[in-house]
Amino acid sequence: MKNNESSFSINITNPNLVMFVNGVNMRSLRSIFFIYRRYSAMKIAMKNSTGCMKFYAVKENYKHFIFVSWWENLEQLMGYYKNPLHKEMMSWLYTHRDEVDFWNEIYQPSRPGVYSGQPHAMAKLFEKISLKERTKEIKND
Fold first, then answer.
1. How far is 80 from 75, CA to CA, in rounded Å?
2. Do the beta carbons of residue 113 and residue 12 sit within 8 Å?
3. Residue 11 φ/ψ, nearest 5 degrees
4. Please, which residues bridge with residue 9 across strands?
5. Cα–Cα distance between 16 and 3 in angstroms, integer?
6. CA 107, CA 21: separation in Å to the nearest integer?
7. Angstrom distance (rounded) from CA 141 to CA 138
């Protein structure tokens, strides 16, 4: 994988921190144009969102991206979902499912510490959380 940053490190002290990992595999020219036109704006929107501690994009090739972001807590990540750019992106992805493979996962650290290396490999160290179950917990609090 090619990286757009030479080194990566994050100090995990917050027990509520969540890591959001999503991948996009573009299978058509139309999906490539759609994603690339919005790529910079999407990065800026995510980096400027309340609670986003760090954002990292891994570009495997011109058709495949992995985005990794760290959020202070799940509530703030869910707040980003209300961003108009995110809503537009999700609407387009769901409407054009035959042109794009899209997946996402959310992880939470099981212990504090400093992590250095490739950000997407952190998923091996973290516990995967069920967004459906955590969303229920948030609504009940």
1. 9
2. yes
3. -95, 115
4. 116
5. 27
6. 8
7. 5
The CA-based diameter of the chain, rounded to the nearest angstrom, is: 44
- Would you say residue 3 has pLDDT above 50? no
Residues across the chain = 141
Indicate whether 71 pLDDT > 50: yes
* Spacing of C-alpha 27 from chain mean position: 20
Whole-angstrom Cα distance, residue 133 to residue 115? 27
26 has a pLDDT exceeding 60: yes
Name the residue among 108, 101, 118 with its Cα closest to residue 74.
108
The alpha helices in 48-130, defined as continuous H runs, are 74-80, 84-95
Instruction: Return the higher-pLDDT residue of 119 and 41.
Output: 41
Q: Which fold has domain 8-140?
A: Alpha-Beta Plaits (3.30.70)
Q: What is the pLDDT of residues 89-117, one digit of tens each?
A: 889 888 988 998 888 888 887 776 666 65
Q: Take residue 105 and report the two structure tokens written for it.
A: 């996962």
Domain boundaries, the chain: 8-140
- Residue 2 pLDDT class (50, 70, 90 cuts): very low
